[in-house]
Specification:
The strands form two sheets. This protein has a five-stranded mixed sheet. Strands 1-3 form a two-stranded antiparallel sheet. It has helices at 3-12, 18-192, 199-230, 240-254, 274-291, 349-359; strands at 236-239, 259-264, 269-272, 297-305, 312-317, 364-368, 374-378. A hairpin with a 5-residue loop joins β6 and β7 (374-378). The N and C termini lie far apart (140 Å). The protein has two domains: 77-230; 235-380, Heat Shock Protein 90 (2-Layer Sandwich), CATH 3.30.565. The protein is 69% helix and 10% strand. The chain is built from six helices and seven strands, in the order αααβαββαββαββ. By secondary structure, it is α+β, with helices and mostly antiparallel strands.
Length: 380
């Protein structure tokens, strides 16, 4: 529909009557009144809302002021409690000071009395000191006399040792000569007149030879024992591991058919006289070699033990061993726990070892059981 047609329709519509126009005007007036009342109510409502918001804001501000006041009151109470605690601590400290002062006063009085007692005893102590000085002077004089006596004894001992050494050499030479003759002529009889001697005579000559040889060995061992006591020590650092390996290698070379396991700990060193310690090590290792000879297989060990309070070296074997009840006889000269028929020897070797160890400031002891081997421990 076009605009012209619409306008025609409006022009053709009938006009309202006067009463209808009056009703329409009344309705419009009523609507305007309602709108004016609504606007007034809206303004009143907005004013109430603003008043409510202002009240709420004032209430929040009052609440914050109340919280601040409460915190201030709590801080005041906390400060008061702290001040009260500090005051109590101060009172406690003051009481302690008074108690300490009382104790110090008592100690001072005790010290004062002690000083008075010391002053009273001083005269007596002075007399005692003078008496002690006199006694000390007498002891110094006596010690000087004793030192002079020791020096004189040392000179006499040195001279006696030289005489003993000369005597030992002379005796050993004088004894060895007839012993060599006895052994030599006995051997000559056995070799040159064997066809003229019966078995009994040959056995007697063999016994004579063995006795002469044993006597010569005893003389050598006695001389070695005396030299150990008299000779001067020349200490140096020694490789005991290498020394043990060399000695056992020599023993193995002498009897290569024996089945013996050697267990030698590496890195073992000590400070001592090389000749004397070599003699001690050789005696101990030769004993292990000798006393394991009755076993088809054997084991010989050389090592270091940390079990005792003082670390020690040890030589251990699994040979014949000995009865531990007789261990105190081991290191005596000519003392043997096995017969010569079981194991050869003179009974001087361990006595020599003990003297060598003692000269190095050490100790030697043994542990063993019959047929379960033996262990010899020594310190340096």
């Amino acid at each position: 529909m076009t605009g012209q047609a619409a306008n025609r329709d409006l022009l053709e519509m009938p006009l309202p009557s006067a009463s209808e126009r009056t009703e329409i005007e009344n309705a419009q007036c009523a609507t305007l009144n309602i709108l004016e009342d609504f606007a007034a109510e809206k303004i009143a409502l907005e004013g109430g809302q603003r008043a409510t918001l202002n009240i709420l804001e004032d209430f929040d501000a009052e609440k914050k002021r109340m919280a601040g006041a409460e915190r201030a009151v709590l801080n005041i109470l906390e400060d008061f409690a702290s001040e009260k605690f500090q005051l109590e601590e101060f009172q406690h400290s003051f009481l302690n000071i008074l108690e300490d002062f009382s104790q110090e006063k008592k100690q001072f009085e005790g010290t004062h009395r002690a000083v008075l007692n010391i002053l009273e005893d001083f005269e007596g102590e002075k007399a005692n000191v003078e008496l002690a000085n006199e006694q000390l002077e007498r002891e110094i004089k006596e010690r000087k006399r004793a030192e002079e006596e020791i020096q004189r004894s040392n000179r006499e001992l040195s001279a006696a040792n030289k005489e003993l050494e000369a005597f030992s050499y002379s005796v050993s030479h004088d004894l060895r000569t007839p012993l060599r003759s006895i052994d030599g002529f006995s051997q000559a009889l056995l070799e040159d007149y064997a066809d003229k001697l019966d078995a009994t005579a040959q056995d007697h000559l063999q016994r004579v030879r063995r006795a002469a040889q044993r006597m010569a060995a005893l003389i050598d061992d006695m001389l070695n024992l005396s030299r150990v006591t008299r000779c001067e020590l020349h200490s140096e650092k020694l490789d005991l591991t290498a020394m043990a390996k060399l000695i056992l290698a020599e023993l193995k070379e002498a009897e290569p058919s024996r089945r013996v396991e050697f267990v030698i700990e590496s890195g073992l060193t000590a400070v001592g006289d090389p000749q004397l310690l070599r003699a001690a090590m050789e005696n101990l290792l030769r004993n292990s070699w000798k006393y394991t000879s009755a076993h088809a297989t054997a084991r010989i060990e050389f090592g270091r033990s940390e079990a005792e309070e003082r670390p020690s070296f040890f030589v251990r074997d699994d040979g014949a061993g000995f009865d531990p009840r007789y261990a105190d006889r081991l290191f005596g000269a000519f003392q043997r726990l096995h017969t010569a028929n079981e194991f050869p020897g003179t009974g001087v070797g361990l006595a020599t070892v003990q003297r060598i160890i003692h000269r190095h400031g050490g100790e030697i002891w043994a542990e063993a059981a019959v047929e379960k081997g033996a262990t010899f421990y020594f310190t340096l």
